[in-house]
Amino acid sequence: MLGHPALILGWAKWLPAWITPLWVLSIGLLLGAIAVVVVYGILSVLSLVPPLGQLADKPRRGITASLIVGGVIAVGLCATYIPIAGEYSNTLFLPLICIGLVLGFGVIYGMWHRTRSEWAAMVGEGVIPYLLSTMAVFAVIGLGGTPFVENPRSILDSVAAVNLVGDGTERVVVTVPASPELPVGESPFVPANIDYQLRSVTGLTIESDRTVLLGDSADPAGFGRTPQRVNEGEKLVYSYENRDQPPIPSDPTRLHIQNREIDDATVVFTFNNQPMVPQASSIVVIAFTFFLTITSLIVFRQAAPRVWALALSTAKNEMAQPLYLLLLAIGLFGVLLFGIYPFNTLGDDIRLLKDSGVTLIMVLGMVQAVWSAGTSVSEEIEGRTALTVLSKPVSRRSFILGKYAGIMLSVLVLFVILSAVLTVVISYKPIYDARETASGDTVWQTGHDEIMTTLPVLGLYLMETMAIGAIAVALATRLPLLANFITCFVVYVIGNLTSPLVASARDNNELVGFVGKLIAVVIPNLNIFNVQAAVDTGNQIPAIYLAGAFNYLVCFSIAIWMLAMLLFEDRDLA
Fold first, then answer.
1. Which of 196, 403, 459, 506 has the fewest CB atoms within 10 Å, i.e. the most exposed one?
2. d(C-alpha 502, C-alpha 538), whole Å
3. Nearest C-alpha neighbor of 463 from the set 358, 554, 372, 558
4. Which of 450, 465, 470, 475 is nearest to 534 (CA)?
5. CB atoms within 10 A of CB 562
6. pLDDT per residue as tens digits for the range 446-485
């Protein structure tokens, strides 16, 4: 039956639309893994040079060097991206500085001789194997469907055209000299001497203050196409999307311009350079995210070994608990069920799938975070286990940080596994709905766009889970598990109502307004991480919004950490 012609024809119709988005993301993961191998391979070779390989032998010297290198990288990133970020560019400072510092620490500790000798241990310990295994399985599924991918060559060619800086707009001005001594129409065609890649040009506007002709040769006898006329004060517009005929030759060395007037002409070319397959930009995003994640884990392990050891022990202990496996099973079952469940929304099933899926993952992550805080922090303090840990060269500050980091690492693994499954389901959902409603074939771009609008939402919900986890760890230093659960639940509910409370208090009396503002100060504004409207409309979350949410998370986490230290500093552990 598997070889039945009708079944094979059905697979041939929907399989490319399902597998191509997964293939695109898999290529991003593969490029990220190659970048990790290449970069840290080069750093491992540099570690053989004694001054470089021994730079991090002394912690203070290694941290100082990392801050210097990271500061230089951060300055370069800020100087590159802040000027082009627009109105809310200030929100990018902290994320870019953090990225620069992570890369700086990655350079210094990547060159450390101990890092070179501990690669096998790093890859095989803690949460890293789970993360790598999940990504590897996802990549195998995606890359395994390469024979069914629609036009993979054009997607790969488009990766090189992705704009890493700016929006791809380039303005080139060419001055064409006049030949007043010659009759009109006999002026020479002079070379434009500009460079461009026509296959990456999705839009082009040509303006001139004099009437000119655009040809593909200096000699009219060698023209391979009719010259394009650009009249004075008019615009010649080309759009690849409209399948227009390009007004310029594909070979930039063949572009020649004739000035048909007695004054010099100024011709302005405005190129809009974009990859011919816009979805190829997600490959670069996924590759960089993978590289930055692995670098962060390496830096954490090598630069803060005591905190990492405590975090690793906490994460392994929590992931071995029956509750963790139960939450993982519930998440897998729920995500798969949402993929085939008929929501009966007359075309909006994909929206409800995304909404239900990301919400389920966030709720499970929060339950895991609060439960782990109660069992890993509160019960260890009550059971005097924390006293044994602190009797070693581990400070109370490192204890709190290590516990929080370990809990968040276990939550990260939960998010990654469930998000990978949700991505596969979202890629197939448009095809499933189309087959159920007999609405015709779908294109792979639909599934890809749905995935890329979901991943930032998962990132925001992970930030929200980290905020609730920070509160849970801080409260666990004083409260038992049940009280911690109730308090975190109340904070979550009120935190998502903070913005509406403040807005509704503006037109009321002063007392109501004061209470609303007081709640907004004391309770975190979790509504920042709630992008329900964007999920409903299918809009892409802009990077500037993610940066703003990250800024709030960092500031809030620092405040909660200070509160946790106040609560834990004078706690009698004996």
1. 506
2. 27
3. 554
4. 450
5. 11
6. 888 889 989 999 999 999 999 999 999 988 888 888 888 8
Distance (Å) of CA 336 to CA 15, 77, 311, 425? 18, 40, 31, 7
Q: How many residues appear in the chain?
A: 574
Edge to edge, the sheet with strand 189-191 lists 189-191, 256-259, 212-215, 228-230
Which residues, at least 6 apart from 53, have a Cβ–Cβ distance to it below 8 Å?
46, 47, 111, 112, 113, 116
Residue pointed to by tokens 């504004």: 525
Contacts of 208 (CB under 8 A, 6+ apart): 230, 231, 232, 265, 266, 267, 268
User: How far, in Å, CA of 289 to CA of 491, rounded?
Assistant: 31
The CATH classification of domain 169-273, taken from the options 3.30.40, 3.40.50, 2.60.120, 2.30.29? 2.60.120
- Can you say whether residue 391 is alpha, beta or left, with left for phi > 0 and alpha for psi between -120 and 50 degrees? alpha
Residue 530 backbone phi and psi in degrees, to 5:
-95, 115
| Beta strand 228-230 pairing with 189-191 | unpaired
- Residue, of 87 and 103, whose pLDDT is higher: 103
- How is residue 155 written in tokens? 């997607």
CA torsion through residues 337, 343, 346, 348, sign: negative
pLDDT per residue as tens digits for the range 29-81: 999 999 999 999 999 999 998 888 888 888 899 999 999 999 999 999 999 88
Bridging pattern class, strands 212-215 and 228-230: antiparallel
User: Where in the chain are the domains?
Assistant: 9-164+280-303, 169-273, 305-573
